[in-house]
Amino acid sequence: MDTVVKPQGCTNLKLRQLMRRVAQHYDAEVGKTGLRGTQYSLLSYVCKLGPIRPVDLAREMKVNASTLSRNLQPLLAAGLLALEAGDDARSHRVLATDAGRDKRHEAQRRWRVAQENLNAQLGVRRVLALHALLDECTELLAPAGPGDEDE
Question: Please, are residues 63 and 143 in contact by the beta-carbon 8 Å criterion?
Answer without folding.
Answer: no
